[in-house]
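User: Could you go from structure to sequence for me? I need the amino acid at each position, not a summary. Structure tokens:
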């Protein structure tokens, strides 16, 4: 799998797709692109080989070949990165050890005194890293309601170095206007970086690079891999200078994804479209059931979602994560503990359905006082819908609601 051209200069795998050599260059639909890979393997292997090696021997002592050391580059990682670049509409993707590792690489672009604007609802681990940087790294972080353009505008100034967005947010499923915020930032502080955490939707449903943002990153632990059997993060960009800066950090800190995990992630990505579609259809059914039962449900597939139109102007799907309130922490706890099919677990984007209470689990690292200030309901239940049979999921949930006393009878719908 050697090539005299450095992997970073090679096109994605391939862009646009060219299954017939010499045939017309065309871009296939995403469902096709996720499964179609081309690799320059010497034996034309269908599955990209795992180069389980730390080092690569060189032909001479003075000229280094394309690969020398897996921390700096590995052919399995290269194939994964090129494949992801194709489906994320990026010129370059970097695969790293976890979603937080991706965020860490991005955060190392910041310098003391820089200001960051981030959401007031965001993944607990991201909040924790930003808090660490503001306490120890001299970074000033403003958490604002990113659904409000004026709230973002108010904090923008010439010290703003980064605007960090999630849409939908985890766990309140708030939607922000990524194109408008990006234009606003570029017009006001052209050098500021707009970075979007696209974990909640995956490239199947949303491609923020198409809206002009600088960096898209995802926890590939979630939808991209889909089976909760690996940790990974991906960073996608369209600017080669920015890519080189980010790659410098990946190489310097040694957080590049290991060959076996690259292989496993590449295998997972191939079923992304089909897994995502099934999970999303299930999520819509579950969301409609809960709303019909009288709960306050947050899901962009429901017309009651306050930013329904905005969401559908940016995204091709509603995702498979929803949250709802019960009015009581005790009731929520009983619901979570009464579910059978829904595993009590953090994370999402897995083939299995999961149930959790963010304030006690994924967002427990946010100070309870801060959670209250940001109006994160302590009784919030988050459902991460998998690919099981939808009726089985609804039945199990109905049973749990009934057991917990949230439904008076298993047929009567009141909370
Ligand atoms: C929205 C979001 N971004 C980033 C992360 C971090 O990803 P990882 O767990 O792979 O480090 C998570 C979850 O952990 C998440 O939910
Ligand atoms: N103990 C972990 C919790 C991880 S939460 C994972 C995921 N992003 C989610 O939202 O469920 C930690 O402290 O990071």
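Assistant: Here is the amino acid at each position, in order:
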């Amino acid at each position: 799998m050697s090539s005299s051209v450095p992997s970073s200069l090679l096109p994605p795998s391939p862009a646009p797709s060219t299954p017939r050599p010499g045939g017309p260059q065309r871009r296939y639909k995403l469902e096709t692109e996720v499964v179609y890979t081309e690799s320059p393997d010497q034996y034309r292997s269908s599955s990209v080989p795992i180069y389980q090696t730390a080092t690569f021997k060189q032909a001479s002592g003075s000229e280094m070949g394309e690969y020398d050391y897996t921390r700096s580059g590995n052919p399995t990682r290269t194939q994964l990165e090129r494949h992801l670049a194709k489906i994320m509409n990026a010129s370059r993707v970097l695969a790293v050890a976890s979603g937080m590792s991706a965020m860490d690489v991005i955060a190392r672009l910041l310098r003391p005194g820089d200001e960051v604007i981030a959401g007031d609802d965001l993944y607990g681990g991201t909040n924790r890293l930003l808090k660490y940087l503001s306490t120890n790294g001299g970074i000033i972080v403003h958490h604002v309601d990113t659904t409000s353009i004026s709230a973002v505008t108010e904090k923008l100034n010439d010290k703003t170095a980064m605007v960090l967005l999630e849409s939908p947010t985890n766990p309140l499923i708030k939607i922000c206007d990524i194109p408008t915020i990006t234009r606003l930032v570029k017009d006001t502080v052209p050098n500021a970086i707009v970075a979007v955490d696209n974990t909640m939707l995956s490239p199947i449903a949303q491609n923020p690079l198409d809206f002009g943002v600088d960096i898209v990153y995802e926890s590939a632990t979630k939808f991209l891999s889909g089976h909760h059997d690996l940790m990974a993060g991906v960073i996608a960009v369209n600017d080669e200078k920015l890519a080189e800066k980010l790659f410098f950090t990946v190489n310097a800190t040694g957080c590049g994804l290991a060959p076996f995990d690259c292989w496993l992630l590449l295998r997972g990505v191939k079923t992304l479209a089909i897994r995502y579609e099934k999970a999303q259809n299930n999520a819509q059914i579950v969301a409609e059931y809960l709303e019909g039962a009288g709960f306050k449900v947050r899901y962009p597939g429901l017309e009651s979602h306050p930013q329904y139109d905005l969401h559908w102007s940016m995204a091709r799907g509603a995702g498979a994560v929803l949250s709802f309130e019960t009015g009581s922490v005790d009731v929520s706890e009983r619901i979570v503990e009464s579910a059978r099919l829904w595993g009590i677990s953090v994370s999402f984007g897995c083939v299995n359905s999961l149930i959790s209470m963010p304030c006690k689990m994924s967002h427990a690292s946010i100070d309870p006082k801060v959670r209250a200030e940001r109006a994160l309901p302590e009784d919030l239940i988050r459902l991460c819908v998998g690919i099981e049979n939808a009726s089985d999921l609804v039945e199990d949930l109905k049973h749990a609601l009934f057991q917990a006393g949230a439904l008076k009878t298993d047929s009567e719908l009141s909370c």
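One structural detail worth keeping in mind: Residues 7-269 form a domain with the Aspartate Aminotransferase; domain 2 fold (CATH 3.40.640.10).
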